[in-house]
Specification:
Number of strands: 0
Strand content: under 5%
Order of helices and strands: HHHHHHHHHHHHHH
Largest sheet: none
Number of domains: 2
Number of helices: 14
Distance between the termini: 112 Å
Shape: globular
Helix content: 55-70%
Length: about 325
Amino acid sequence: MSDADPISNPQPELINDPIGEPPAASEAFAEAVPQPYAPLSTTEPGYLWRPIEPPTPPPLQLVPPPPPPKLIPNFGHTLVFLLLVIPALIGGYIIALLSIYAAHPHIRIPILMQQIGQNVIYAISMQAAIYAVLWALAALVFSLWWGRSFAKGIHWNLSAATHRFLWLALLGGVTGLAITLAGNFLPMPKAPPILEDLTKSAAGAWVLMAFGVTVAPITEELAFRGFLLPSLVNFFRWLERKRLIGESAVHTIGIPLSIVLTSIPFAFMHAAQVSNSWGPVLLIGLVSVVLCIVRLATDSVAAGFLVHACYNLTLFSGLLIQTDGFKHLDKLKG
């Protein structure tokens, strides 16, 4: 064969590359070099359950690895959220007062200020206004701080709740029935303040029920499962990142302790509503444990809200049946 025969004397294929390197060489080299870890975005489901990076140091690379994702929210974020309650109280009270005055302009404002604390509907309206101002302030402050939407930062994750809607609603209802049943075996107050508010008027009872299955659980889940619980878990994740504890310690100690530390203030926040009786306070703490597990398992504050709302709805439904649709509120007395 001649020298030009491609079989006996194959020639390399000419590539239009100024340095003679195949275009895919750099990509192939990059793929061959092991990456230190695949960065786990805090927007992915279940990020609180899984480690954000492996405990072993990454191998030497030509290109430095990207920085680990930020731990959001943390204790600083939770503290700022609590501080926002102060302007929310002032703003919500002013909004509620002006709204009531607009509906009753013939009543002087000092008298209206006294009635807000005595009228259940006025009091609930004021509390709803305070919560609405708190939501607005938190959404503004943290969306600017985090550089992402507020819903994404707290992991509202509505899709996780909608995909499991029936199961979450059922869990809320079953939890409500179980807590009601358990109350028969614990010391319970005969006339707690929350029942006294219900028995003042049928209209007030309906308003309280609507508030209890919408505005209240949203705000409580935002505060306790949107900020406090992740802040506690992220603290242990930070210790893991600093190589002070391992992944097993996060799961066996960090996450259970975070659930307990979230449930204690949640239970005591409701203590005044149940005459500070230890029986219902204990049960409310157990409900918080369920809500914390739902929040962590689904990585969704919306899922916790759905369970919380259905739990409250179950309790109110029992009162509705007992009073024939809030027509005989006297049955709740004594």
